[in-house]
Amino acid sequence: MRSQTTGWLLLAPTLVILLVFGLGPFIYVLVVGFTNWNSFAADPTAHFAGVQNFRRLVFDDPFLHSLWLTFGFTFFAVLSEIVLGYFLAQLLMRDLPFKGFFRTIHTLPLMVAPIAVGATWRLLTVPGLGPLPYYLDRWLGIDLRIGTFADQAFIATVIMDVWHWTPLVTLTLLAAISSLPKEPFEQAQIDGANRAQVFWYVTLPLLKPAILATVFIRVMDALRTVDEVWMLTGGGPAAATRYVGLHIWRVVFPKTDYGYGAAMSLLTLYVTIVLCWLMYVALVARRELPRSE
Amino acid sequence: MMGRSPLKPGRGWLSLAFWIVASLITLFPIYWMFVVSAKSRVELFGAPNFIIRSFFVENYTATLSNPTFQRYMLNSIIVATSNALLVTTLALLATYALSRYRLVGKENIFFWTITNRMAPPAVFLLPLFLLFTQTFTIGSFSLYDTRIGLVLLYCVFNLPFAIWTLRGIIDAIPRELDEQAMVDGCNTWQVLTGVIFPLAKPGLAVTAILTWVFAWNEYLFAATLTSVNARTITTGLAEFVTVTGTNWGQMAATATLTLVPALVFLGLVQQHIVAGLTFGAVKE
């Protein structure tokens, strides 16, 4: 009764846009990555260069450094968000007054533009203006200058990310916890399991799919963080918070060394995929946790 | 009285205390930004003061009366609104096709759309810049630094979101309704506008609002693919750091203005934003 042609016609505009602006650039970067195209070079036309760009990448210290920094940032940010988010979600499961109100407040950071998140944290941490340097110095004697000290800048970006994205983890895990079956918990209580045992042998295995999904989404997002960090630290001091997205955008992109930039983009995409795949293998294919009888 | 997690007296208060602290930490950076936006340079000097005694309106009026900023604001409104309308319309058509027609490989297409949203944007800056400046050109017209360019580009991450959000909504509308309408002699367009649209309205509204917010919030593509004419409010905010360096009051005012839509829409869409940000993997 329904003609297939009509169906494809309805789908066509969407497919055309996604093919031109989504798949198109991907194929483009794939091709350019294997050329020596540099519009400022003596010969500004593109020639096939094999894996020459990728060979250069392996010895590109600033790039490898930014990749390494990105992993560190992702690791600390996502780990803190999962722990904190789980804790807050469990607290929200209790009988709590003003639950809806707390949830609404908690959702707010998710709606804020990343660039505005960076702006708010800059206003908090600027020496001479922000309350953080002022009170850390007065109360704890800590000299907070994220424009000078690399460690502080790194920690600041992690804390900012935790502020921005913990709500997503909380709300995701809350949805998962609310839909858990009651019976395993009642059984564990009858068997006299203590809190730690219930958590380790009942809650965690049941929540594993939800936690995994959240970790994947957060890791993918954290690996591509650019806006907030650019606004907060500008990638500095020196290159201390120049994560890989920032590195491609601010260092490689303006150099018009298109072939090399494309190769770097490709490698970044590849590393993202491999990292997610490794995590999947490590977390999902691992031996199942023993369950209580 | 044995609940799932038995509450000892006093435990509830502890949870409440934790949540109050968490909420204060969540609100504090935004509140501080608002405080800075309401103060003059002189007032900001010295120890941080969290109370707004007199509202220093000049930060806002200076921003709002600046022609450059007005243009950025207008661009953001035009780009976000056009993108929301375009994405919602196209996604409605696409989702209807995916839901009702027997198309070869439609589930693969459905999944493929979301992969467009997963890739790191920085990876596609270079090819997009080259495509926008050199390939997608007609005569002297190129997509670079145009609002239409941004509107089309934002479809890449907003269309998958909209399709994944609407799929469940369209699937939930009973097929009998539109089949009956077809028997009565309605064509596909009439079925879409007369049957599907009214029933899917609430879902479409949420999709449109979140799409609008995502487009409004976008920075990286806007910063790379525009130069003068099509710059948006987020790029304007970023320029503050590099251009005027120390005028924190005005920067805070601009950031607060950037935040307004999020605050306005928060209540309307808070139930759906998590599903939106997790590619529909989590439904509350």
Automatic annotation (TrEMBL), chain A:
InterPro entries the UniProt entry points to: MetI-like, MetI-like_sf
Compartments where found: Cell membrane
UniProt keyword Transport present: yes
Protein name: Sugar ABC transporter permease
Main location: membrane
Entry keyword annotation includes Ligase: no
Membership in a protein family: Belongs to the binding-protein-dependent transport system permease family.
ABC transmembrane type-1 domain span: 67-279
CDD domains listed in its UniProt record: TM_PBP2
UniProt entry keywords in alphabetical sequence: Cell membrane, Membrane, Transmembrane, Transmembrane helix, Transport
Species per Swiss-Prot/TrEMBL record: Bradyrhizobium iriomotense
TM stretches of this protein: 7-31, 67-89, 101-124, 153-177, 198-220, 258-283
SUPFAM superfamilies (UniProt xref): MetI-like
Lineage: Bacteria, Pseudomonadati, Pseudomonadota, Alphaproteobacteria, Hyphomicrobiales
Protein's membrane topology: Multi-pass membrane protein
Automatic annotation (TrEMBL), chain B:
Membrane topology, record value: Multi-pass membrane protein
Gene3D superfamilies: MetI-like (1.10.3720.10)
Location (main, coarse): membrane
Cellular compartments annotated: Cell membrane
InterPro entries registered for this protein in UniProt: BP-dep_ABC_trans_perm (IPR050901), MetI-like (IPR000515), MetI-like_sf (IPR035906)
Transmembrane residue ranges: 12-34, 72-98, 119-144, 150-170, 191-215, 248-269
ABC transmembrane type-1 domain segment(s): 73-269
Keyword tags: Cell membrane, Membrane, Sugar transport, Transmembrane, Transmembrane helix, Transport
Keyword Membrane: yes
Pfam families listed in its UniProt record: BPD_transp_1 (PF00528)
Role according to the record: Part of the ABC transporter complex MalEFGK involved in maltose/maltodextrin import. Probably responsible for the translocation of the substrate across the membrane.
Family, as annotated: Belongs to the binding-protein-dependent transport system permease family. MalFG subfamily.
Protein name: Maltose/maltodextrin transport system permease protein MalG
Lineage of source species: Bacteria, Pseudomonadati, Pseudomonadota, Alphaproteobacteria, Hyphomicrobiales
